[in-house]
Amino acid sequence: MNAHDVVITGIGLVSSLGEGPDVHWQKLTDPGLRPVLDAERFAPYTVHPLPEIDWNQQIAKRGDQRQMETWQRLGTYAAGLALDDAGIKGNDALCSTMDLVVAAGGGERDIAVDTDILAASADRSDRDVLLNEKLTTELRPTLFLAQLSNLLAGNISIVHKVTGSSRTFMGEEGAGVSALETAAARIGAGQSTHMLVGGAFQTEHVDMLLGYELGGYLHRGPWQSVWNRQGGQGGGVVTGSGGAFLVLEQREHAQKRGGRIYATLDAVLSARARRTKGELEGSIAGLFDKADLPEGDLLAISGASGAHKATAAEQAALAAHPQIAARGFSTLTGHMKEAQFPFAVALAALAVHHKAGYPAFDPAERNFAGTPQQVLATAVGYHHFEGLALVRAAD
Amino acid sequence: MATMKDHMGRPVVAVTGIGIVTSLGIGKADNWAALTSGTSGIRSITRFPVEQLSTRISGMVDFLPSSSKGASALTYELAEKAAHEAVAESGFGLEDFGGPLFLASPPMELDWHDRFALYNSGEGDGEPDRLLEVARGLNSFDLFETAQFGSIADRLADRFGTRGLPITLSTACASGATAIQLGVEAIRRGEADRALSIGADGSATAEALIRFSLLSALSTSNDNPAKASKPFSKDRDGFVLAEGSAALVLESLESAKARGAAILGILSGCGEKADDFHRTRSKPDASPAIAAVKAALADAGLAEDRIEYINAHGTSTPENDKMEHLALSTVFGEALRSIPVSSNKSMIGHTLSAAGAIEAAFSLMTMREGVLPPTINYDNPDPAIPLDVVPNTSRAAQVETVLSNSFGFGGQNTCLVMAREPV
């Protein structure tokens, strides 16, 4: 234990299961938990929809809420939950010096406008002119801001007054991995003392599904758990709406202000396999090697997406470490893209904090009975980039 | 013998490679010649029809093979060209660079031409679901990758053999500076002895133009494109949307010296501060910009009186230039009168995600070449913001230190301090 360790002192979670670390811990440790699914709205795709959310709880001004589409609201909301949980919310001195890193995709386009343009395009050969006509007259001026990737961070600054610095990383699951990796490195090197890091994903929008399906990645047909989609219709990914933010602090900083420490973030590692050259399984194995895994039974919170090749590679790499009991949480929440890795790390931190593992999320997962001292979290991107983290009990 | 550690005991970060592409041309030499001769790269738009558009000018890069192939392809090509020039100059291997990659690039969306093609190759009712239906039959990653946010960096990592998971980032108009800051921080932490930082933006589509237009951010001086971008002028009426890229090879001074590389400049300080005021407007008291400038100076270990030239954000919007003047006059006080402050955007327009990197590259060249690029179109000075903007023609001057400002929509402000030699 060291004064410059990176510790997790706040967790903000939203998924189809509900909101907050306590609700997620209670539900995910209930062995009979069933996922919340919507198989109708986007059929043939199934999604894990957002729960009922009272946005006022974290975004007090209606004016602010109106300036955001759901994705930004969701992220701003989850960030507020994390700040609240850490006891930092509303503390001007701490928020104005806090560094922010958001893992972001894009926001929601206006489907009505896009649909109208596409419908008109069938009868027009001058489609570029059509675009000008429609976009100049039908786009809401502020919608652009509600879509912009870096404006989730912008809204967190505006609503929660987190203004030390603000950076937005992009790039699917890898953005979440890099966000946590660089945040931990900055704290470890004394470049920052306290940070807010995380992301959100709002899947209930045709463009968000299209982002996967252009690559043929979505699972179709009857829902299956994340480990049981090989050979099924489609590409294996079932998405979910949700968000995950973490407050990371230098241990000394957390202790001085009397913050509650969930876990120590021992390591965050990342890699980029050249997957077309068949490097993925070896890359994941390399991450396990570098992580200096503890002896004996080890609980792992796997961010596996279900994407056929990536998930098979992760399973193969896991199989080489039979002491690991993996929990594929996408079975219960769906895949949350940029938020996937922060979500995995949050669930890992909750396990060491509560000194208990999660029951199997699927019959294929093996039992874990011990008290977890360290827990692994993984995110192997459905298309590119991979990462893992190792958290350790605070005491 | 230069010291290898800075005032805080961290490795000094040198620049050993620079690459640039803007509407003025490809490569440092052409760009520098045009920039210091006061040439404008702003032209009437020809890439797409301009019917109905209130802004019909831009600083697009229209001379690359990918210029008509959509934002993703063009942004990649811009990044690749700049990085190629920078890595080649540094002397590192073009296919095995061996350090991390930090890419500032615009958020990616499926191009409208692809959207039209997908839609019209499908059947059934005119519902958005048709796109999904067509998409799942594509059987190719080509379109998919144009809409993945990490794909450009992924390809660049393959192309140059960079190390590890590349970071793609956006801090709006400060992105290019943030990419450099991430590289500097990684070297200071000892994670790498070299890093490749790139800012690239080829996203000047009709929709991007319309979006900024709807926010009343763009100049509508369509009749004389070369005169449209007029930072610090009384009649400035908005920025000019533009494209471009720049790449820097950052390297610990120790590593650069050890292998005998030419030192093109020193990245001495980075500072940032977020604004919580408004989604597009800066806090009226300029306090976030002031804090970002001060943080960069403190990080560099320099007092205000050591800055000899300022490469302004200088967008040519009424609000930015006023706010930037307020910030600079607050930090530098009376001394600001004797510090030249010019805006590259007067010639190349606002290259958005690339701007911070391009302007850092030009700042380094300013010191190296001993020439201050001008602020062109300064025919009608704004008396409310008195500055030595290096009006209209470049000026010979030996400059040892530069401050480069980047202030973004969404409140993300990043400033860089660069020096000719280690200080």
From TrEMBL, chain B:
InterPro entries: Beta-ketoacyl_synthase, Ketoacyl_synth_AS, Ketoacyl_synth_C, Ketoacyl_synth_N, PKS_Beta-ketoAc_synthase_dom, Thiolase-like
EC number per UniProt: 2.3.1.179
Domain of life: Bacteria
Domain Ketosynthase family 3 (KS3): 10-420
Region forming the signal peptide: none
GO MF: 3-oxoacyl-[acyl-carrier-protein] synthase activity
Family: Belongs to the thiolase-like superfamily. Beta-ketoacyl-ACP synthases family.
Protein name according to UniProt: Beta-ketoacyl-ACP synthase
Species for this entry: Aquamicrobium soli
